[in-house]
Every structure is written in structure tokens, then in C-alpha cells.
């Protein structure tokens, strides 16, 4: 049984989520404001939530406030529910220790698969070492290279996590596109993917250092381990 705190002011979304997640063997407590969420975190401390699903735009504040408060109380996994316009804000969310995000409107199945992935990462070893002194701490959503903090955007980080879930395996461009970008992301095309991979390499591979992401001509890309 996965214990989830939902913080979402939209009744329709909340009801849909409750129905789907309870089918999925989750116990859901729903709150609609920052104040209610804080009260639930105080009240239910013994219950120990496994996961928080937090809408960014709440009537009395931001989902970041809830995330910050939850982080001060425990280490539940956090997924943000964001509007398309919040895309850039999710970078700060991941910086604050959120584990992932989904962009509205999302398909419930997509959210369910993200929940499973996040909970799996959360219960497993948080730190992964990659070639070139790259260290990824998924518990803190923190990436360092040679001990220096590397700042990734939300999508760059998600791309890296997707590679890490398939270490040493060749991933085709379409696998990467469907695995990393939201279903509704029609603005994402092949060129966007090329740009993201290039940026990720520039941030993580030291000049003259080992290759982290190898291009496999005609097939796709592979994360070296
Ligand atoms: Ca909202």
C-alpha cells in the first residue's frame, strides 16, 4: 500500500486521480491548499507518506511551499503537477529536491508509470557513479562532476535519468522521445532531442575526458557505465 498526499485544488483532477490511484493499491489523502497540506503533514506524521503529488499553482501559495515544508519533515518522494507555463519553474522544483514532474494535461497512465519509477528510485540506492567523475544522487536530485555541482534543467535531468534506467543499452531516438518528453509535447521533435543530448554532454563530459553518452550511428545513443 503506497501512501500518497495529493495537494491539488482542481476537483475534477483530484477525483480522477483518486479513482485511478486507489485502483492501483494506493491510499490517498487529498488536500486543496498549502495550509491544508501543511496541516496534513503535521497530523499524519506517523502515517509517513511515501509520495507527495503537488500542484504548483495553489489558491494560497505555491506547491514549492508545500515541498519545502515536507522536506523539513521527512523524505517522501515528490512529483509536481505543473501547467505548461510552469515548465521553467520545475527546474527550481527539481533543485529543491522534487523527484519528477508531469505537465497538465497528463494521461493517468503516464503519471502512474512516473510514480512507480520515482518510488523505485527512492527505495533503492540513491547515488550512481558514472564515467568522468559524474555522480548522480537521485535522492537529492543532485548531479556533480569532479565534486562540482552541475545544474541541469528539468528535461535534461529527466533525460539523464532515462539513460540511467537503461545503462549500457542503445536507446533509439523514438524510445528517448517517448520516454522522456510528455505525451502532449508536440513541440518536441528530433532536433530538440539532438539539442538536449548535446547540452547534456556539454555539461557532463569534461573536455578530453571519457565519453558519457555515445552516438551509435544509425541506431541511437548509449550511456557508458
Ligand atoms: Ca491549481
Top keywords for this entry?
Rossmann fold; four-stranded antiparallel β-sheet; globular; binds calcium ion; alpha/beta; 40% helix; 225 residues; 14 strands; Arc Repressor Mutant, subunit A
Quick synopsis:
By secondary structure, the chain is of the alpha/beta class. It has 8 helices and 14 strands.
Fold and architecture overview:
With 225 residues, the protein is of the alpha/beta class. The chain folds into two domains: 2-123, Response regulator (Rossmann fold, 3-Layer(aba) Sandwich); 127-223, Winged helix-like DNA-binding domain superfamily/Winged helix DNA-binding domain (Arc Repressor Mutant, subunit A), CATH 1.10.10. It contains eight helices and 14 strands. The strands form four sheets. Strands 2-1-3-6-7 form a five-stranded parallel beta sheet, sandwiched between helices. Strands 8-9-10-11 form a four-stranded antiparallel beta sheet, with no helix packed on it. Strands 12-14-13 form a three-stranded antiparallel beta sheet. Helix 6 packs across helix 8 (190-204). The model has no long low-confidence stretch (mean pLDDT 86). The protein binds calcium ion (CA). Calcium ion binds next to strand 4.
Amino acid at each position: 500500500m503506497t501512501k500518497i498526499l495529493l495537494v491539488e485544488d482542481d476537483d475534477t483532477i483530484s477525483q480522477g486521480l483518486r479513482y485511478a490511484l486507489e485502483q492501483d493499491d494506493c491510499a490517498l489523502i487529498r488536500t486543496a491548499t498549502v495550509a491544508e497540506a501543511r496541516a496534513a503533514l503535521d497530523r499524519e506524521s506517523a502515517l509517513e507518506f511515501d509520495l507527495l503529488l503537488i500542484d504548483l499553482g495553489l489558491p494560497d501559495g505555491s506547491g514549492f511551499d508545500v515541498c519545502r515544508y515536507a522536506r523539513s519533515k521527512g523524505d517522501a518522494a515528490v512529483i509536481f503537477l505543473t501547467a505548461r507555463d510552469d515548465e521553467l519553474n520545475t527546474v527550481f522544483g527539481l533543485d529543491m529536491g522534487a523527484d519528477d514532474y508531469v505537465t497538465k494535461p497528463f494521461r493517468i497512465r503516464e503519471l502512474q508509470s512516473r510514480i512507480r519509477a520515482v518510488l523505485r528510485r527512492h527505495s533503492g540506492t540513491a547515488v550512481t557513479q558514472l564515467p568522468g567523475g559524474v555522480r548522480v544522487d537521485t535522492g537529492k536530485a543532485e548531479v556533480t562532476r569532479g565534486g562540482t555541482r552541475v545544474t541541469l534543467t528539468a528535461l535534461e535531468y529527466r533525460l539523464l535519468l532515462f539513460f540511467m534506467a537503461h545503462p549500457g543499452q542503445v536507446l533509439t531516438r523514438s524510445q528517448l522521445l517517448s520516454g522522456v518528453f510528455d505525451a502532449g509535447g508536440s513541440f518536441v521533435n528530433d532536433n530538440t532531442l539532438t539539442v538536449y543530448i548535446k547540452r547534456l554532454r556539454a555539461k557532463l563530459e569534461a573536455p578530453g575526458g571519457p565519453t558519457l553518452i555515445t552516438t551509435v550511428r544509425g541506431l541511437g545513443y548509449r550511456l557508458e557505465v
